[in-house]
Amino acid sequence: MAARGCGGVWCRVLQRGPGGSCSASRPRRAVACNARGGAVPLGQSGLAPWAAVVGLEIHAQITSNSKLFSGSQVQFAAPPNSLVSFFDASLPGTLPVLNRRCVEATVMTGLALNCTINKKSLFDRKHYFYADLPAGYQITQQRVPIAVNGSLSYSLCKDNKMSQMVTKTVRIKQIQLEQDSGKSLHDDARSQTLIDLNRAGVGLMEVVMEPDMCCGEEAAAAVRELQLILQTLGSSQAIMAEGQLRVDANISVHHPGEPYGVRTEVKNINSIRFLAKAVDYEIQRQIKELENGGTVLNETRAFDSKLGCTVPMRDKEGKQDYRFMPEPNLPPLILYDAKSLPANVNHQQVVNIDWIHERLPDLPSVKRAKLVELYGILPEHSFTLVNEDGLMDFFEDVVKQTQMKPKKVIGWILSDLLSHLKQHSLTAKESPISSFLLADLLNLLENGDISSSAAKQGITAIHLKFSMWDSSSFQVFEELWKGEGKTPLEIVKEKQLELIQDQEELEQICQAVIDEREKEVMAIKGGNEKVINKLIGLVRKATRGRANPLLVKQILEKKLSE
Amino acid sequence: YRRGQPLGELDGIPIAVKDNFNTAGIETTCASNMLKGYISPYNATVVQKLLDGGAVLLGKTNLDEFAMGSGSTDGVFGPVRNPWSYSRQYKEKIVPRSDSEPENSNWVITGGSSGGSAAAVSAFTCFAALGSDTGGSTRNPAAHCGVVGLKPTYGLISRHGLIPLVNSMDVPGILTRCVDDAAVVLGSLAGHDPKDSTTVQDIFQPFALPSLTDVSKLSIGIPKEYHAPGLSSEILAVWSKAADLFKNAGAKVVEVSLPHTHYSIVCYHVLCTAEVASNMARFDGLEYGHRSDMNKSTESMYAATRREGFSDVVRGRILSGNYFLLKQNYEDYFVKAQKVRRLIANDFVKVFGSGVDILLTPTTLSDAVPYVEFIKEDNRTRSTQDDILTQAANMAGLPAVNVPTALSGRGLPIGLQFIGRSFQEKQLLTVAKWFEKQVQFPMIHYLSYICEAAFFHPQRACKVSGSLKN
User: Fold this and answer.
1) Residues in the active site (chain B) (predicted)?
2) Is B62 domain-assigned?
3) A70: nearest CA in chain B?
4) Does residue A310 carry a pLDDT above 70?
């Protein structure tokens, strides 16, 4: 366990109070992280320290061709009620038949989350009447789920500084298989409810995380890590916007050393960013409620992303008794390992845990470590590469196709490509610049055909950025971004972006700049050598970035010392 | 047909199917307002197997609503009349209670809940019929109607398409006029069904029954607990005679004990109602079946739909089942009942482990009672009494068969039950066949004018809604 993670890492967001419109008038409150092993008070004068306790219930839709108990296809945004079998519509006499793929995906996920896999698990019926639950019950695993007692390590940065990452661990209570419900569309104008059963019966993994988190940022980081793991395994696409990953947060506050406070459950959170906001808002709301002498109700609240706050959910009022009962139509789910696997068994009929274990792909944490080791990049860069969808593959493709060192390539990927992608809300896979073209560009740069301060060793990030905006390679980059199908070399030729190799021509331009800038020249001669950077900039501007800055500096220094 | 080859052993054989099995394109009602007019889009696996084997579906048969009953008197289409009510054997023996009573007030019930299927076979309208058996629903009417009623081992025959009563006890039942026929039908129905995960994977080999000549190697168990309160002396006598028959033929006949038998009914009541509450939850008027006009809110529509769609009997079971499943009651009722069920099943394991091959018991406490008598008690009391001898086999999932044995003093059929080891249907039916041959149960004889009445009675003993296969 990461001792430093427990040692007193404060959640920045909490100390500032929640963001969003609801928090504008809220005073800051001191909240200590509830790191297991003892919460530490913030020690701000006058205020009792509060500790927040956050647990998560995460539903991940299993990536599978067919539903959990029927042969209907699974597909997002299909025409309403086009993917509904007799079983999904709960026609009388239909029976569930367990989808092996869903079991395997859940076992895989359980193993990746360090769970104990139950060799025998059971299915139960959970009863409630709702229009999008055709059978009047959901088949789930209430008593004995497939996987139990796991853990998930995740990292987040302290004070929002990439260089100060801390690793924390959240315990996984269990992972259970269950059916998704259909969707209700309430038409208030005509006071009717329309039902779409396409989603009814799709396989879900419910991952229950123990209340080991203490703020929105931690919850968000844990969910992001889980999301990456699911995507790496292929057990779920885990796209929150499409509802493939749904997060409910259980939140309470208390004074460290005292029993946990009354908790609320926050639902309706549809992005990781909103998760952090919703959790932090709810913590502050509870603290304010308690400090004002009020009480926290054990209720279900919904996050309103527009208002940035949580509101009570009306339709979940009143105590539900789900009247759990064993599902009589499904025998116990028996899983095998190499030892317990009976001889002469048809391998299509059984799920072998060891077999799945051996075939687990590299998990995100392993991928990051490998990136650091293989390419000599910084751990925080490995985080960005792995956490941004498809960026790691892109990076590795570029590295393969260029002579440029990976350490230099990472700068291009993280500061240029990624910022452009983010600006246009694109993933690396959707990048208009293919890894091939970027590699091409970097090769031109590496061969000295075009300029870039990136070529310069030991340059700071800010300089790097400055030089990019100014450099011809960046212009090529911009051209490439337009995606007109030109190669970097063609663009370079077309725009006359090649480096000016002619020493004489460069010297003339440098001389012209020196002649124009008497003041700066005086300053340099007076001992302020830094001003030379300004002259270099002017030369580069005059050449539209086609000058090698190292060469320009040499020429200027020579001329100024004459 | 064109090749001149039969589709299967049942090619051309007329059959009837209890109206809780789904039949594609033909109304499937469960004798409930909830499903009146409901046309299923698919065939139950057993129905499909019968049709594939060339059987001709003559019709769907009446039952107690959702198979909840032991008289076939509690369905929305009215009660089923026992064909033996119109037999010469019965008519000749009854004494009219008073002159003022109408002639047909003496007709007796079929038992249930598969009464329509038992009546259909008994009345010679078909060779075989499908019933379902959850607590005795196939064996009980078989006994009252003088036909063979087989409840196979749980998991041997697919339940896919059978509208459930209690999933963990339901088994499709087979009603025929002789044991050999039951074996033939079993052969065409049994086997793993990928659509029912509770069917066993083992391949089932259809069998023809040997004619047993030597029973001396057999050990027949007589469970003393089946000497239940209310067992008529007539039935007791038939039972004893049957035991003697085996003894005299050289079989070993031993008294055995199944000590948890008396807990069976109360245990069944908890497990049955709990599953009923769960299984009936799907009838909300949204996807299929009856929907109330009430449209104030979704909840009020649910409530009205279920009030209008279900009878008092069904609603009563739903109510008690939900009570047993409440969080505060679950341990005290449901979990306890499950433990008792295990004890009951273990009783059988012990007895069969002690070397007993087959158990011989009565099927019912008495012969069929007149309808007017039957309805004096409510459904729950009746079910409690009538399932008492058949129910334990469902708890344990064992195969059991009713074999018509003798006529009562009133000229009505009396049947005895054989209970066998799990998946030992062949042994069970072989013994049943030997017994059937010994007892020579009489054929039903109709008075000619009565015969017509039985077939064309407006109350329809057999609800015919099927069409002939072309």
Assistant:
1) 18, 113, 137
2) yes
3) B195
4) yes
Is pLDDT at B392 greater than 50 in this prediction?
yes
Residue A411: what pLDDT?
84
Does one domain contain both A304 and A379?
A: no
Chain B positions touching A324 (Cβ under 8 A) are: 325, 327, 330
Catalytic one of B32, B85, B113, B422 = B113
CA of A322 vs chain B CAs: smallest distance (Å) = 8
Question: In this predicted structure, what is the pLDDT of residue B315?
Answer: 97
Under an 8 A CB cutoff, do A323 and B277 touch? yes
Q: How many CB pairs under 8 A join A and B?
A: 101
Domain match, A68 and A187 both: yes
| Active-site hit among B32, B70, B122, B137 | B137
Number of domains in chain A: 3
Q: Per-residue pLDDT tens for A265-278?
A: 999 898 999 999 99
Does B466 map to a domain? no
Give the whole-number percent of chain A exceeding pLDDT 70: 80
Judge whether B161 is closer than 8 Å to chain A, CB to CB.
yes
| Whether A125 and B278 lie within 8 Å, measured CB to CB | yes
8 Å CB contact of A91 and B21: no
Q: Do the interacting molecules here have an ipTM over 0.90?
A: yes
- Same domain, residue pair A527 and A424: no
Chain B residues whose beta carbon lies within 8 Å of the beta carbon of residue A123: none
A255 and A394 in a common domain: no
**Cβ separation A136–B281 shorter than 8 A:** yes
The total domain count for chain B is: 1
Task: Give A272 to chain B, closest Cα distance, Å.
Answer: 34
Highest mean pLDDT among A14-28, A362-376, B103-117, B133-147: B133-147
Residue B336: inside a domain, yes or no?
Answer: yes
pLDDT band at A317 (very low <50, low <70, confident <90, very high): low
Write the CB contacts of A68 (distance below 8 Å, at least 6 apart in sequence).
Answer: A62, A96, A98, A99, A102, A139, A177, A178, A179, A180, A201, A202, A203, A204
State pLDDT tens for residues A54-64: 999 999 999 99
Residue A378 and residue A271 in one domain: no
Domain boundaries, position A94: 51-326
Q: Tell me, what DSSP letter sits at residue A19?
A: -
Q: Is B286 on the interface with A (CB under 8 A)?
A: yes
* Tens digits of residue pLDDT in B232-243: 999 999 999 999
Task: Answer with the one of A304, A326, A348 that is the final residue of a domain.
Answer: A326
Query: Which pLDDT belongs to residue A452?
Result: 53
Residue A513's pLDDT is what? 86
The pLDDT assigned to A80 comes to: 95
Reply yes or no on whether the pLDDT at B85 is more than 70: yes
Asked if the structure places residue A351 within a domain, the reply is no
- Say whether B113 is catalytic: yes
- The shortest C-alpha distance from A94 to chain B (Å) reads 6
What is the average pLDDT score of chain A? 82
Does position A407 have pLDDT exceeding 80, yes or no? yes
- Nearest-neighbour CA in chain A from B17: distance (Å): 15
